[in-house]
Design a protein that fits this description.
The structure is a single chain. The chain is globular and about 45 Å long. It is built from five helices and ten strands, in the order E-H-E-E-E-E-E-H-E-H-E-H-E-E-H.
């Protein structure tokens, strides 16, 4: 059994691709005998700050729900969670649940950045799922976003990972030149990595064996 910390700015009841993949993977890992804590943003005021969802410990952090803008392609669920208080809470949750593997989703969101930094500071293994390639239809915005992605996000989050999951074939390009030796392109693995990646998960977890078919 492995204790996994899932960090994603988007999680049910928010409906999005990364929310669906993250929650599905978390639920599947619990069904296979692992312990999972999901740390996400509290976008819906009515959503509880803490709940147990299909065996997953879900903790929702206070966040700033950002407005739709052309720069963010009018994405409706953009949010910011980074604050000293939230960082302390994330660190405390990772310790409380004795998390061994930190798995962050959507490398361009701030919880992925927080997870990568805390994993490095505490010596935990880091897994990153790249859901989206940062591209914009406006050349200037595309240049600005691409530069931030290449100079900050890729170096801080993707290059720091011991494992990289690419649910879409297009996102697999992030693995090239990253130095990540355990990259897996799994366009059909939206709920849980296939059994053929069992050795990959063991590599990501170091000496920890992921039992239960995980």
């Amino acid at each position: 059994m492995v204790a996994v910390g899932m960090l994603s700015n988007l999680f049910p009841p928010v409906a999005s691709g990364s929310s669906t993949q993250c929650s599905g993977l978390a639920r599947a890992l619990v069904e296979r005998g692992h312990e999972v804590v999901a740390i996400t943003a509290r976008l819906h005021p009515g959503a509880p700050a803490h709940e147990v969802w299909h065996g997953v410990q879900v903790h929702r952090l206070p966040c700033l729900h950002l407005p739709r803008t052309d720069l963010s392609l009018n994405f409706p669920w953009l949010n910011a969670t980074l604050s000293p208080g939230n960082l302390r809470q994330i660190a405390a949750l990772l310790d409380r649940y004795r998390v061994e593997v930190v798995h962050v989703h959507n490398h361009m969101f701030d919880l992925a950045l927080a997870g990568a930094v805390l994993a490095r500071r505490t010596g935990r293994k880091l897994v990153v799922t790249v859901h989206t390639i940062i591209k914009h239809r406006r050349p200037l915005y595309d240049l600005l976003l691409g530069t931030a992605d290449r100079l900050l996000l890729k170096r801080t989050v993707i290059d720091a990972a011991q494992g990289l999951l690419c649910p879409a074939t297009s996102t697999a390009t992030c693995a090239h030149g990253s130095g990540v030796k355990t990259a897996v392109s799994c366009p059909t693995a939206w709920t849980c990595p296939p059994r053929s990646t069992r050795s990959w998960w063991r590599t990501c977890a170091g000496s920890t064996s992921l039992r239960g078919g995980g």
